[in-house]
Amino acid sequence: MLSYVGLSLLVLLSAMEAATVERVEYDYYKYHTMPEITKWMAQVEKDNPGVVTIVEYGQTYEKRVIRLLKIGLNTGEKKKAIWMDCGIHAREWIAPAFCQYFVRQILQAHKTDPKMQEMIRNMDFYVTPVLNMDGYIYSWKDNTTRLWRKNRSPGPPDCDSYGTDLNRNFDANWGTLGVSFNCSSETYCGSQAVSEPEAQAVTYFVGSRKDDFLCFLTIHSYGQLLLVPYGHPNFTAPNYKELMEVGLGAADAIRSVHGKNYTVGTSPDVLYANSGSSRDWARFQGIPYSYTFELRDKGTFGFQLPQDQIQPTCEEAYSGALHIITYAHDKTFNGAVATAAATLWTMLLTVGVTSTTLM
Ligand SMILES: *[C@@H]1O[C@H](CO)[C@@H](O)[C@H](O)[C@H]1NC(C)=O
Ligand SMILES: *[C@@H]1O[C@H](CO)[C@@H](O)[C@H](O)[C@H]1NC(C)=O
Ligand SMILES: *[C@@H]1O[C@H](CO)[C@@H](O)[C@H](O)[C@H]1NC(C)=O
Ligand SMILES: *[C@@H]1O[C@H](CO)[C@@H](O)[C@H](O)[C@H]1NC(C)=O
Ligand SMILES: [Zn+2]
Asked: PROSITE patterns attached here (predicted)?
């Protein structure tokens, strides 16, 4: 028979256990389901009052609410902004993992690092951990759907397949290069520019504040590339040289973390020509520093990057993203000019990806 003391001890122990469970750290180094990520977003907002706000800015085809985390201090001043989205392609699971890591890192740095404190005073960070939520959930369904890329809208009435490639659906030379009008294709660009609700959400949200945004960073895998505008070879960004220099600086920062080589260039120069990407759309809107990150690896595991590579991949990519963001910030707020031995790096450019796998 349990004594009163014994019983109290049991109650106390189970209370302690419950409290411990409550305090279990979120594991940033495993892949998370959509419900887990949504719960994590709510927790991050709750844990960082006055700094983090959830913003709902659209709906997916299957009527899920698209949310981002807005990170910044309300200074009462008009601020500049940084955009980051992950998971526009469903199967690229390392991308949402990176967005979550990125949020944690800037929130930690904001507590200790004067530079991050300065940047969070001057700029708001808008981070969408999973843009293509329907596709992401579908890619978690079973091992036959793991490599799903597109969203989940049905095609035209005579089509027996689902999905539009959201990164071909933006209003940037839409439907001209590197796309398919076959609705069963992985690169089906949709019935018209911005036909898809997920592309509409980004277009309206970013488009309505386009003068605020300094950076537009859209995160994909795989290939270890930093892609600059434009995907169409007949168009050149007005600041192409600067985009390359800053991109090469970011690649340098990435290399210094775990020795991984990232190749920098336009899509036609280092991957394949394409049209309708969000990166190109953002640059056409006048957002100066628009980049696509293609994270690890170079094809060994491809979209199915093992979980033990999440940490190093995120660490190096954070360093690269921070290089671009810091450059954009300092140029805008300090007039500082970040020059580098960038021309040297240009000479070292190598094309690392020869496969035609879509990323
Ligand atoms: C999917 O999983 C089943 C059961 O675990 C396995 O038998 C099958 O080979 C897997 N298929 C693929 C395409 O990986
Ligand atoms: C459309 O694409 C699918 C998948 O790639 C392919 O099987 C089919 O033959 C294509 N249809 C036409 C008309 O090209
Ligand atoms: C690029 O411009 C050239 C010259 O005007 C033209 O011949 C070519 O078709 C264009 N390329 C594309 C992909 O539109
Ligand atoms: C990265 O590139 C440099 C220069 O091209 C080369 O020396 C080095 O071996 C590469 N590192 C890896 C890990 O491939
Ligand atoms: Zn992709």
From this structure: CARBOXYPEPT_ZN_1, PEPTIDASE_M14
**How many CB atoms lie under 10 A from the CB of residue 156?**
10
Cβ contacts of 218 within 8 Å, gap of 6 or more:
84, 85, 88, 167, 277, 278, 279, 282, 291, 292, 293
| pLDDT at res. 337 | 41
Contact call for residues 332 and 118 (beta carbons, < 8 A): no
| Mean pLDDT, residues 149-174 | 96
Q: Is the peptide bond before 262 cis (omega within 30 degrees of 0)?
A: no
**d(Cα 174, Cα 177) in Å, to the nearest integer?**
8
pLDDT band at 331; cut points 50, 70, 90: very high
* DSSP-assigned letter for residue 188: B
DSSP, collapsed to helix, strand or coil, labels residue 219 as: strand
Per-residue pLDDT of 183-234, as tens digits, reads 999 999 999 999 999 999 999 999 999 999 999 999 999 999 999 999 999 9
Q: Is the CB of 344 under 6 A from ligand 4?
A: no
Ligand minimally distant from the alpha carbon of residue 260: 4
> Measured in angstroms, how far is the CA atom of residue 302 from the centroid of ligand 1?
18
Residue closest via CA to ligand 4's atom 13 equals 260
Residue 338 has pLDDT above 70, yes or no: no
The closest residue, in CA terms, to atom 6 on ligand 2 is 184
Quick check: 34 and 137 in contact, CB under 8 A? yes
Ligand 3 center from residue 176 Cα (angstroms): 11
242 alpha carbon, distance to own chain's centre? 22
pLDDT at 334: 83
Atom 7, ligand 3: which residue's CA is nearest?
234
For 246-274, what is each residue's pLDDT tens digit?
Answer: 999 999 999 999 999 999 999 999 999 99
Q: What is the pLDDT of residue 3?
A: 54
Does 56 participate in catalysis according to the annotation?
Answer: no
Domains defined for the chain, CATH in brackets: 25-358 (3.40.630.10)
